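Before surveying the methods themselves, let us examine one representative protein, pairing a chain with its fold in token form.
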Amino acid sequence: MTHFALQFYDFNEWANKQIFNRLKELPKDVYRQEVQSVFSSISNVLAHVYLSDLGWIEVFSGKNMNHALMLAEQLKEQTESKGLEEMETKFFELSERYKSFLNQKENIDKSLVIENPSGDPMKTSVSELVPHVVNHGTYHRGNITAMLRQMGYASVSTDYGLYLYLKTRA
């Protein structure tokens, strides 16, 4: 049986592909179009998700939270400047890194101590935090859907239930 964290991460990768495929069908300017929303553009949403996911894999790999936050800050402007195809490649490469990491049993069950800004450390595990990574992506794919509707375009379904259904059909 596949570990839930692995399957849930696979869903995240599938859902991101759905969004990228939909965005590639739309006029190129939609990616950077300014909107009144939580983020000013879809490109900024995707940069945020990517940098957050990058930070978490760094933490899972043994770096501390401060390192992850500083890395995101260092790469923010550079990441936000990437075009749609470049971001898709970045997401794909990061997904490969996650899958390689998560496919090692000793990593998926790895215990972590996360230093919080409040000073209280949180004891958890990689497998407990993978749903956080996936849920964060799900939340922001919802932002993208709302932004697309605001611009007059339909989005695409990225529901976990649809993923499970399609997986049974493959």
DSSP finds seven helices and two strands in the chain. The first strand starts at residue 111 and ends at 115. The mean pLDDT is 95.
